[in-house]
Structure prediction request, 171 residues.
Amino acid sequence: MTDSEWVRATVAQYEAPLIRYALRVCRDLEAARDVVQDTFLKLCRAPRTEVEPHLAQWLYTVCRNRALDVVRKEGRMNHVHTEVADMASDRPPPAAPLERAEAYGRVLALLATLPPRQQEVIRLKFQEGLSYKEIAGITQLTANHVGVIIHEGIKTLRARLGATPRVAREA
Prediction:
């Protein structure tokens, strides 16, 4: 595969997930698209042999750093607060009974209440499918620290889910 074919394939695979990710940081769709475009331009200039072995980590790291730069420049250094609508991905909730769809909605709403760092690493793990090592590289944390943050976030979500009212079940 030529370098240009590789870049095209990479854009096809990662453009939508990177825009979603950048949108959560920038809170502006056009800025997010610009960030992703800058990310791919940087990919075109980077030596393929240095990037390809850890492509996802490299792309998310460049995208995150560029998005944070944009936010800082615009003076809107807000922490990443996410609403349920921001959590929507290209994949619909699992086709399941209404109860599963409601549970999915509850989880998304509760995820938005977690601290920004927990939200970020949980999204990178479960929405983007990245490994702890890749997330560590993106967020400049250790893989162990990423695991602890994810564990704490999941633990909090489970506790909060247990505290939310559920539909009464027939006895």
Notes: The two ends are 61 Å apart (CA to CA).
